[in-house]
Structures are given as structure tokens and as C-alpha cells.
């Protein structure tokens, strides 16, 4: 029987489940809209239901364990969700124990940015590298780090909250309550907000013409059609991302920076601006870092959560100490 | 015979040497003004001369090795100084090989921020902790990180250049060439510059009265005497440091943040402002991090450089993988 892990990617909008083998191949996949307002027991039922459905359709697999990626900050040492703004009732919730109670397999729990970093490191754009910074640019900005061949976890396993690096004193308001966080300035949400404001301020753009809605895809589409304001907005976004990434490059000295999340769908348009910022402003010794798009797309977190299971099985006392190369 | 390491702390202003035992005790110490303009061979002679002098006066010790802390960024994997602005002729200089040629003992080389972090971790304020961010606030801002019980090195061993995290777009000019780096806004140099400008702008301060020079000590002294402008300057500095430290706390999730460098002489005055920033603006799960003053003072780097030697001896292939607790 094929040995597989169940990977779960719990987000504020979608909850995804997959059966994943040790090589990161996704054998089966299911998803549901997260019932975010209904409280943790309902969300746990969704997770369990998705996993059960996948297993029922794949009777010939042997399950090694369940790996769960969840929005942070989660204390993964205690297994407790401290404060998840996008999910009602998850403050101080003993998520790992509650998950374990639903499954007859060992459960591993990881902050979502770290899980996605593991996915890209084991199976995606960062394979065979020892130093990787992963960032996801989407509704918010999150991340995870691999340094010196090991996953960086920090106290309570909460390292990698790079979206709450301050990039501008008294800048845009962040969902965390502070102002000027990388997330508040550089996320897809921030980009869309800037586009909507700019469309009101500047007449000379197709954005928002005749009351049309403006989302990030519209800005990139208008930019491709030569709209000057749209191109300016995209160039500004690339500069904000480039500046944040440069900070992370000085802090971690990675081999590679991997960008995922919704805005990475437009990576080809953003990449030259990001790279130009690094080439001009990073210290010379750091300028040759590679900035690449996530190779696993939406599946980085799912595959990373599953990878946790295989790593934990090999070295149960401390899976982070497992040598990376298999 | 007592086993000791020779610790060397090479800086742009001072070069220091010490004989250090495995418990971090400094048995003998010597220093010299760095002949920074005279080129690397002269600086190497200074280092060698200091070490020889210490050994001549301590004939009963057995030397395990030489550990050298030097200003970065240094590629400690290749042993090459890439670009040291404060030392003439150190660009692309094979520092480790040149040091090794002068000593009959094994030489270890480390970026200065990392060496000081190791000193505080093994012997100072971070003993018995697995997650530590060290920052030095002095002429510039540097740092080093211990995460999950191991020294964070990154590609080429260049991690920890936290002074070049961008904290303000188009902010103050940084020696690195960029604008708005943490160092450009928060270092002792930046603090002094702000004080001099403020003294010119505001009449109502004792700072600079009758053409007096203004250095950081003068500002703290005036603040203690109740000078309003001086107190404002100090509060601003604490806020800049608090904001930068908050970013690092979100990024690394440390147990403790250790502040060294010249401005840490005024740690008691700065600490309430730093802590107030963290308490108000860090995400709740991170607010209980401790911010403390470096326990080894000027000796963090010297002791950390020496600690490298003992770590390297125990696990020569990869001293970073040595278990921390001895």
C-alpha cells in the first residue's frame, strides 16, 4: 500500500485537503469554503469531512499522519491558536489536541507561512537549497524561512511573521492594529486600495471607468494595455515588494527568495521591478540573490503540511533536526 | 596547562585581543587603535602583535585556536572579506587564509554581529535560551541571531545584517548607499546628527549652547537634567529602536532581545520607551518578549570569537551543529 500523508491547508476563505505522497505528488484533492464565522468545532468538522471523503475514494493508501497548516500566529509548541483574526473563536483554542481527537493518525500543526516554505523547499522552487525565504503576497503578507538547511521556528514556533515588519512609520493601517507594516503597504489588499484611490484622484486611466470595480487583476490587465496610471501602480508595488525583500535578504542571507500568493500570478510583470530594487540598493555582497515565483502555486501549503508528517515520522522527537536531503 | 582560545575583535576604530577560557572568562586583554588606512597587511600585523604579547605574558596556557570577529559583510564560508567600508584594502581580501598564515593554531572567522551574539548566548544575557536576537547600536547597527538553539548564518555566513532593514522609504542616507535603513535612522551616529540639527532649530535647549559640541552622552546628560528637547530626542530614539526591534520580534520570535553597543550604556533610559512600543504595537502573542542589555559590555564580540574556537574544536566539520548546552 502506498504511504501517504493527509495535508490540510486551513485558511480564512478556503479549507483544502489532499492526499500527498513522500515525493510531494498530490494524489487527490478536495476543498470547501471555510465556515469561518461558525466557530472552531464546525471548522474541525469541515477538515475531518474533507479528509474522510478523500480516504473513502482512495481505499488502497496507508496514512502516515495528518499535517495541518493554519493561519498564525499559532503556538505550535503548545498546539494552541493564539489569535486568528480571520476565524471566529480561535483565540486560545487548543487546535492540535482538538484535531488529534478527530483523527486516528498523528497530527502535526504548522503556521501557514512556514508550511508553505516547507512545501517550496522540499518539492518546489527551493529544492536542494539550504537558505530560502518564502513570502506569500495575497490578502496579507506571510512567510517562512529555511536557514542553514533547517526550518526556522523560533519561540512557540511563531517565526516568519514578516508581514509585520514595519516599513513606514505611521503608514497605512494594518489589520494587526499597527500602521506601516509590510502587509499594510505591500499586500494585494493594499495594492487594490491604492488603485481605487488613484482611480478617483486621476481621471486619465481606464481603471474604474463608468463605475467598474477595481481588483488587482484589473490593474494588471490595464497595465498590459498601456494604461499609464495602472503601470505606475504596478511599478510602485514592485518597489514596495523589492524594498521589503531587500530587508529580508540582509537579515537572512538566503540563496533564494520564493514569492507565492495571489499577486505571484503576476510575477513576470512584478519581477523586473523587484530585481531592479535589489540590484540598486542591496549591499553588493547580497545582490546576486535569486527572486523566483513559487513552483507549487496554491499547493505550497498543502504539500508542506504533508511533508511535516514524513519529517515527523522520521525524527519524532524533533523533526526540525532531520537532515534535509533524503 | 589551562586550555584557552585567543579571541580577536577587529573593528574600524579598535582592535582587541584576549585570552579566553572555555567558560568565557577573560584572562588577559590588550587593544590597539586600528591602523585602518594602512591596508590589511598592517592590520594583520597588529592582530598578530597583540596576540603574541598576550601569550608572552601567559606562558602557562595551551592555545586551542584563534577566533576572529571582523566587520561584515564577510563571506565566512570562503573566508573572504567582501567589502569593509571602515578598513582600507579589505575588499575581496582572503582574510581567513592570511590570518591562518600568521598563526600556528586553527583560525575561525565570524561576522562581528554574529560573534557578539554568540558571546551573549554562551556567556552573557542569553545563556540557556534557544532563541535570541542580538543587536548592537553604536556607530552603526549590527546584529546576530540564535534560533532553535543554533547560530543563524545563512548563505556565505552573512545573515544578521539587520542594520540594513529598510524602516523608512527615502529616509536618512545610510553609509551603505541606500536611504532609510534601520542603521541610518536608529544608530548612535543618526541620534547624534538629529540632536545637532534639533539644537540649531530649537533655541530652548542647553544642547550646543555657546557652541558646545553635541555627542550622544551630552544628550542623555541634558535629558537627565530635565532638558525638554533632549528628552524628546531620547524618546524618539527609543521609539525608532522599539519599532525596529518589534519587526525583528515578528520575524524571529526570540525569547529575548539583547542590546549592546555604545547606546546600550543608556539602556535604562531607553528601555521603557522600547518596551512601551512593543507592548502597544507588537501582535499580542509576541508582546511578552524580554528586551535586555548585553551582559558582556564591550566583550561580547571578543568572548564570542573565542567561543567559536571551542565550538569548532568539538565539531570541526560543522561547529554550528554542536549542541548548545555544555
UniProtKB/TrEMBL annotation, chains A, B:
Stored PROSITE patterns: ROK (PS01125)
Pfam families: ROK
InterPro entries: ATPase_NBD, ROK, ROK_cs
The UniProt record lists the keyword Lipid metabolism: no
Record's keyword terms, sorted: Plasmid
Segments crossing the lipid bilayer: none
Family: Belongs to the ROK (NagC/XylR) family.
Keyword Ligase: no
Name assigned to this protein: ROK family protein
Amino acid at each position: 500500500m502506498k504511504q501517504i500523508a493527509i495535508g490540510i491547508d486551513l485558511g480564512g476563505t478556503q479549507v483544502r485537503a489532499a492526499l500527498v505522497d513522500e515525493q510531494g505528488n498530490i494524489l487527490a484533492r478536495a476543498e470547501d469554503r471555510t465556515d469561518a464565522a461558525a466557530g472552531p468545532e464546525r471548522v474541525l468538522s469541515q477538515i475531518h469531512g474533507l479528509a474522510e471523503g478523500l480516504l473513502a475514494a482512495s481505499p488502497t493508501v496507508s496514512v502516515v499522519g495528518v499535517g495541518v497548516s493554519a493561519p498564525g500566529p499559532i503556538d505550535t509548541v503548545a498546539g494552541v491558536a493564539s489569535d486568528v483574526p480571520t476565524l471566529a473563536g480561535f483565540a486560545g483554542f487548543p487546535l492540535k489536541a482538538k484535531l488529534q481527537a478527530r483523527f486516528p493518525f498523528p497530527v502535526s500543526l504548522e503556521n501557514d507561512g512556514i508550511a508553505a516554505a516547507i512545501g517550496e523547499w522540499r518539492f518546489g522552487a527551493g529544492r536542494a537549497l539550504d537558505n530560502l525565504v518564502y513570502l506569500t503576497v495575497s490578502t496579507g503578507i506571510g512567510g517562512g524561512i529555511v536557514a542553514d538547511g533547517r526550518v526556522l521556528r523560533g519561540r512557540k514556533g511563531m517565526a516568519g511573521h514578516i508581514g509585520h515588519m514595519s516599513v513606514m512609520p505611521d503608514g497605512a493601517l494594518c489589520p494587526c492594529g499597527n500602521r506601516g507594516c509590510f502587509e499594510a503597504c505591500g499586500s494585494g489588499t493594499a495594492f487594490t486600495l491604492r488603485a481605487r484611490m488613484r482611480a478617483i484622484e486621476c481621471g486619465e486611466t481606464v481603471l474604474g471607468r463608468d463605475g467598474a470595480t477595481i481588483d488587482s487583476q484589473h490593474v494588471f490587465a490595464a497595465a498590459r494595455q498601456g494604461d499609464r496610471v495602472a503601470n505606475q501602480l504596478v511599478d510602485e508595488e514592485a518597489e514596495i515588494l523589492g524594498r521589503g525583500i531587500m530587508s529580508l535578504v540582509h537579515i537572512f542571507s538566503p540563496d533564494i527568495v520564493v514569492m507565492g500568493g495571489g499577486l505571484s500570478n503576476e510575477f513576470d510583470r512584478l519581477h523586473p521591478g523587484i530585481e531592479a530594487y535589489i540590484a540598486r540598493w542591496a549591499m553588493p555582497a547580497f545582490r546576486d540573490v535569486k527572486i523566483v515565483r513559487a513552483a507549487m502555486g496554491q499547493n505550497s501549503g498543502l504539500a508542506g503540511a504533508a511533508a511535516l508528517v514524513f519529517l515527523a515520522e522520521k525524527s519524532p522527537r524533533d523533526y526540525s533536526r532531520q537532515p534535509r536531503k533524503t
